[in-house]
Specification:
There is one protein chain. The protein has about 325 residues and is α/β, with parallel strands linked by helices. About 35% of the residues lie in helices and about 15% in strands. It has 2 domains: about 5-120, 3-Layer(aba) Sandwich (Rossmann fold); about 145-320, Glycogen Phosphorylase B (Rossmann fold, 3-Layer(aba) Sandwich). Helix 1 packs parallel to helix 3, helix 1 (about 15-30) crosses helix 8 and helix 4 (about 135-145) packs across helix 7 (about 220-225). It starts with 6 loop residues before the first strand and ends with a helix.
């Protein structure tokens, strides 16, 4: 007699970047249930599409915040009749205590260190859980329809708040310098990615450096499939930056009013750079998300270029070691 399929509930974050960084925990949770479990995922609305190719997925439930924590009541109403073999709640909501669950991991991600290490510690993996993306044929097809080559310079000039964005002209300048004759990536194509809301920004940067603007043309999984073929990704701290690192692209993250100790692109192919001001300095200065201008003015092109060269040298070293 065939054993019934195990059932997994995975509740993760709202922002895309945090969702990417939680995917290692999702994969570990799947592995801890024998066989291929049926998976229910609850996450922020903007990240929902990222999970569509997870093996065993039954549904993704977007969590749209409501007053008085009404979003948790709404989610309970959609799940209350089900029994889960394992429920993982990385938001520490306590919702699963109102559900029928045989095992639970209910903890808000806290502590010191990188987010992947903090998530890993909840599962006895203090070295960190590397993100794991699942890409489907639709993602690969859309990525190839947008661009078929590899080894290109990918730029991610967007971010959720203006204060987290490196000035646009520096993206076009660094791309020109990296691809100029005799430079590290001489002749490499330049692709500028981002959300639909960042289309005008991407087009302006692409026009200034002879690149191609793809902002708004690819969903999250298609973006990841494309970035897996990049020679290097240069971008602000954002969900796209974390997608690039998770896809395996050499990823340079540009940091200002966010903490690279927690949110640097994870893994050996990732590197974070910032200007002369530390994260603590910017916090003490009273930065808020409403700040209208870039807080990365002190991050020079020369410093970012040095970061790219460090990444490329690492890649050469890894290839020689094979």
């Amino acid at each position: 007699m065939t054993a019934p399929m195990k059932r997994l509930l995975f509740i993760t974050s709202g922002p895309i970047g945090d969702c990417v960084l939680s995917t290692g925990a999702l994969e570990l949770a799947r592995a801890r249930l024998s066989g291929d479990p049926a998976v229910t995922i609850a996450c922020g609305p903007n990240a929902a599409e990222m999970f569509r190719a997870v093996p065993g997925l039954t549904r993704v439930l977007p969590i749209q915040k409501l007053p008085l924590a009404g979003h948790w009541l709404k989610l309970w109403g959609r799940l209350g009749g089900e029994i889960f073999d394992l429920a993982v709640d990385l938001r520490g909501s306590g919702l699963t205590y109102a559900l029928a669950c045989r095992r639970r991991v209910v903890r808000r991600v806290r502590g010191e260190g990188h987010q992947c290490e903090r998530v890993g510690a909840l599962f006895g993996q203090p070295q960190g859980l590397a993100p794991r993306l699942f890409l489907d044929e639709a993602a690969h097809g859309a990525a190839h329809a947008a661009y078929t080559g590899r080894g290109f310079v990918a730029l991610g000039p967007g971010a959720k708040f203006p204060g987290k964005r490196w000035p646009a002209d520096r993206f076009s300048d660094i791309a020109r310098r990296l691809t100029a004759p005799g430079a590290a990536l001489a002749g490499a194509p330049i692709l500028v990615l981002g959300s639909a809301a960042e289309t005008a920004l991407a087009q302006r940067i692409a026009a200034a450096c002879g690149g191609q603007a793809l902002a708004g043309e690819l969903d999250l999984l298609a973006s990841a499939a494309l970035l897996a073929r990049a020679g290097v990704f240069i971008g602000n701290d954002s969900g796209l930056m974390h997608l690039a690192a998770a896809a395996g692209a050499p990823t340079l993250g540009l940091f200002g009013p966010s903490d690279e100790a927690r949110y640097a692109p994870f893994g050996a192919k990732g590197l974070a750079v910032r200007g002369s001001r530390t994260y603590a300095t910017l916090r003490q200065a009273g930065w808020s998300e409403a700040h209208p201008d870039s807080l990365l003015q002190d991050l020079t092109i020369e410093r970012a270029l040095a970061g790219v060269h460090t990444l490329l040298q690492r890649q050469i070293g890894d290839e020689r070691a094979i």
